[in-house]
Write a structure and sequence with these properties.
The longest helix has 28 residues, at 162-189. The chain has 2 domains: 2-181, Nitrogenase molybdenum iron protein domain (Rossmann fold, 3-Layer(aba) Sandwich), CATH 3.40.50.1980; 185-309, Rossmann fold (3-Layer(aba) Sandwich), CATH 3.40.50.1980. It is built from 11 helices and 8 strands. The termini are far apart. It is globular. The chain has 314 residues and is of the alpha/beta class.
Length: 314
Amino acid sequence: MRTFIGCLVGLTLWTSCTSTESSDLLVSDQTVRVVATTGIIADLVREVGGPDVVVESLMGPGVDPHLYKASARDVSRMAEADLVVYNGLHLEGKMGDVFEAMEEQGKATIAVAEVSIPDSLLISSELFQGNYDPHVWLDATLWAQVAHALANALGALAPGRAELFSLRGAAYALELIEVDAYVRAKSAEIPEERRVLVTSHDAFGYFGHAYGFEVRGLQGISTASEAGTADVQDLAMLVAERRIPAMFIESSVSPRGIEAVREAVKARGFEVRIGGTLYGDALGGDSTSAATYLEMVRHNIDTIFKALSDDERS
């Protein structure tokens, strides 16, 4: 499989290079062509790159990056780009061979979270094959560090616009610090004993660490591992015993697991409501309140605040 992927990437890159007069945008006035894996990363590229980039995302709203497999068309899109931006830290676990083959063929790539966040700030997890938790964007201050790293990568690719990328990266980082302050203020208004975040999978570890929540996910850090009956019963026992008022589904994960937990909690004599949908691994569509990263962050904390602060029971 690895050999096949390498050959496919090599052929696609060769075709891309020979089918255009020049693929070197550094000597032209063209915009930087970027392919990003997730919508969250694509949004970051737009903010930092501004009008000097054209970016497309491989994964649309509601797509689970843990399970996503690159198609032949995806490989072509990456081969035609000037830069491929992905999260790294095994978020896009089924695309690792593709990225490796791209790098071996000389394609400019960057695993933005992996290269910008020091190990001391990463959360390790024995349940995720001994690797680090990849969901760093759920702490806005960490995502600000990623913004700076992306600005540097774009500047290295197009030195004539490096200062512009740096300025945009710094300006966007300030917006991220502002939204971080908003999340901290809203979190502090939730009684401490109610700051227990129960979600479809364990994506909110960085959120919990940054904003003072205990986080419990039905599935592990990667949705590639499915929850079993014992997982459902264990989580139901915790919710019932601690009388947690609400649980949350995620936009990119089937709600069946959380619904099963809710039924198991009900069987224990306690009613827990579904507090709403959170956006963990993917942005929402254009018509949602989570179409951009900043909107997503605000949507999540507003949804959490309303559900965990409300005394009513469903």
